[in-house]
Amino acid sequence: MTGDRFLIITGLSGSGKTVVSRFLEDLGYYCVDNLPATLIPSLINLWRRRELAIEKVALVVDIREHGFLTMFPRIWEDIRKKAGPKLIFLDATDETLVKRFSESRRPHPLARRRSVLEGVRLERRRLAGIKKMADEVIDTSQMSIVQLKETLARRFERRRRPPLHVLVVSFGYKYGIPLDADLIFDTRFLPNPFYVEDLRAKNGKSRKVRDFVLNAPETKAFLAELQRFLGFLMPRFAAEGKSRLVIAIGCTGGKHRSVVLAESVKDTLQAGKYDIKVDHRDIYK
């Protein structure tokens, strides 16, 4: 049970522990934030006895927990013997941490009656011993969120990064825009099968409707631009570490044009290494 299956993340407030926790969760880790140090041995015992159906665990522990400074060093050696965890300490310069707290407008946990800088310096002194215990120290001072994720990927990703999960949703504007959409494309300018008597009762899954929409010059031009646009965007979303993307394609009723275009986008994206699903939200309304 050694290696990267059990990670303990700690470090200075504002150094990026939340970013790390979310990233590891995307990699399949079961993440627990701010677990009291006294409960870590119990969690390890349950995990080792397979009483928890969890493959990989990541704990975020830090100075927010009362007693962390005294209890964690006491139990660390026992933890190492039982589970062989890797202790990761996140660090950053005083200047960087003060700037981050100023930008986020969140109080430093040790600066209730002090300046942020005084709180940062006090926390650094108190965590000095735990920093020495760490297997790895990551200085995030010069890292953006994307750069921090890339650093973590190089250290902890033993397998290929999971594919970007893409949900393509067709919808009707008359029923409202999907609230979780990341990208929205309007197809209401395309020729409408609703006004063709032989096609009105059919939907976008019908071959006749599909041929009608796709053979229109406007559709061909639009699809060419859309495919080029998605070809530019998708690799960049994946590189950023985004795990899920919702692409919404709308027409008036969500029954004809949006369904055809959603299926076409799905076919286009399947050529890439993405996990694609389609939801025709309003096709039967």
Short synopsis of the structure:
The chain is an alpha/beta fold and 285 residues long. The chain has 9 helices and 9 strands.
How is this fold's topology laid out?
Layout: E1 6-11, H1 17-26, E2 30-33, H2 40-48, E3 57-60, H3 68-83, E4 86-91, H4 94-104, H5 116-133, E5 136-139, H6 145-156, E6 164-172, E7 183-186, H7 207-214, H8 217-240, E8 244-251, H9 257-269, E9 274-280
Helix pairs in contact: 2-3, 4-5, 8-9
Structure, explained:
This protein is an alpha/beta fold. The protein has two domains: 6-156, P-loop containing nucleotide triphosphate hydrolases (Rossmann fold, 3-Layer(aba) Sandwich); 164-280, no CATH class. Helices cover 42% and strands 18% of the residues. It has helices at 17-26, 40-48, 68-83, 94-104, 116-133, 145-156, 207-214, 217-240, 257-269, and strands at 6-11, 30-33, 57-60, 86-91, 136-139, 164-172, 183-186, 244-251, 274-280. The strands form two sheets. The chain has a five-stranded parallel beta sheet with strand order 2-3-1-4-5, with helices on both faces. A four-stranded parallel beta sheet has the order 7-8-6-9, covered by helices on one side. Helix 2 links the parallel strand 2 (30-33) and strand 3 (57-60). Helix 8 packs across helix 9. The longest helix has 24 residues, at 217-240. The protein is elongated and about 80 Å long. The protein starts with 5 loop residues before the first strand and ends in a 5-residue tail after the last strand. The relative contact order is 0.14.
